[in-house]
Amino acid sequence: MAGFPAVRPRRLRRTPALRRLVAETRLHPADLVLPVFVREGVREPVPVSSMPGVVQHTLDSLRAAAVEAAEAGVGGIMLFGVPEEKDARGSAGTDPDGILQQGIRAVVEEVGDATVVMSDLCLDEFTDHGHCGLLAPDGSVDNDATLEVYAEMARAQADAGVHVVGPSGMMDGQVGVVRRALDGAGHQDVAVLAYAAKYASGFYGPFREAVQSSLQGDRKTYQQDAANLTESLREVALDVAEGADMVMVKPASAFLDVLRRVADSVDVPVAAYQVSGEYSMVEAAAAHGWIDRDRVVHETLTSIRRAGAQVVLTYWASEVARDLRRA
Ligand code: PBG
């Protein structure tokens, strides 16, 4: 039996150095984007109980978190606002002094030269009914009326200095409307990261607490059905045609097949969002001692990159970026 088997894949797995040499996928701090929540009217950061380790920031603690992220080398920060007052129209979202716009100004001032500042462009954080758009009299989400508000939001966020807006409401035509609104207001250089393939997902559960959403029901009339893959390719193609500079698939881990197909189908950078439920599942199992937290965090992020995401949004961004720098 000498010399058999001739091919031994195990040879390249023998030592950490060999495994590192032949690794096909690497994580780098610059690929990671940290989502952060900024809440209006609080003096101290408020822990999000459904997301251990995540808080709703004050403007001051937001600045500190942004500095920490930038020092760790993260590629970007994605901002979400939690206003004190919500109404049917989501007025705080378009108010030049709304909490998200204040957060953008603070982060741009603090770290705008060191990292990319992004903002979620959607109404659900700002509406009292919790939907991503305006409601028609019959209770349905009114696509075209919502687009007008998104245009206004895009201008408000760009006026505050954001580098990239992330339309995430899944209204038809939203990327084109946002692009035109930005261009019309002299913000030609503000980029659009389109949440292009966004599924109606149970994995957003913990996020609802983070933004204090009062949503009754679900978002199935505008976000995609988990059963569909081809539909994502159509959504992505539309967004690119409407001017998206980058596209995103969301959630990440349960949709790696979608991510791969999207990455193969477009020539713009592709991002994936490892959402709140993906984060909290790992944290919860780790808290029970059921899984090795750091190992699983690294494995999930590597898999998302391997499936085709160039950029990954993750609540672990700063921590992982720090670890990568130490390694
Ligand atoms: C919409 C938005 C949501 C998330 C990001 N942007 C909520 C939703 O679509 O229901 C979810 C992020 C997460 O779960 O971590 N503003």
Automatic annotation (TrEMBL):
Q: Give me the residues that bind 5-aminolevulinate 2, please.
A: S276, Y315
Catalyses which reaction?
Answer: 2 5-aminolevulinate = porphobilinogen + 2 H2O + H(+)
Name the UniProt key words of this record, in alphabetical order: Heme biosynthesis, Lyase, Magnesium, Metal-binding, Porphyrin biosynthesis
Q: In which pathway does it act?
A: Porphyrin-containing compound metabolism; protoporphyrin-IX biosynthesis; coproporphyrinogen-III from 5-aminolevulinate: step 1/4
Q: Tell me its EC number(s), please.
A: 4.2.1.24
| Active site per UniProt | K198 (schiff-base intermediate with substrate), K250 (schiff-base intermediate with substrate)
Any one Gene Ontology cellular component term annotated for this protein: cytosol
Please name the GO terms of the biological process aspect recorded for this protein, alphabetically: protoporphyrinogen IX biosynthetic process
Q: Which Pfam families match?
A: ALAD
* The keyword Phosphoprotein is annotated on this UniProt entry: no
* Amino-acid positions noted as binding 5-aminolevulinate 1 in the UniProt annotation, renumbered to this chain: R208, R219
Query: Which parts of the sequence bind Mg(2+)?
Result: E235
Q: Which CDD domains match?
A: ALAD_PBGS (cd00384)
Q: What are the protein's GO molecular function terms?
A: porphobilinogen synthase activity; zinc ion binding
* InterPro entries assigned: ALAD, Aldolase_TIM
Subunit info?
Answer: Homooctamer.
Function field: Catalyzes an early step in the biosynthesis of tetrapyrroles. Binds two molecules of 5-aminolevulinate per subunit, each at a distinct site, and catalyzes their condensation to form porphobilinogen.
Assigned protein family = Belongs to the ALAD family.
Q: What's the protein called, per UniProt?
A: Delta-aminolevulinic acid dehydratase
Q: What species was this sequence derived from?
A: Vallicoccus soli
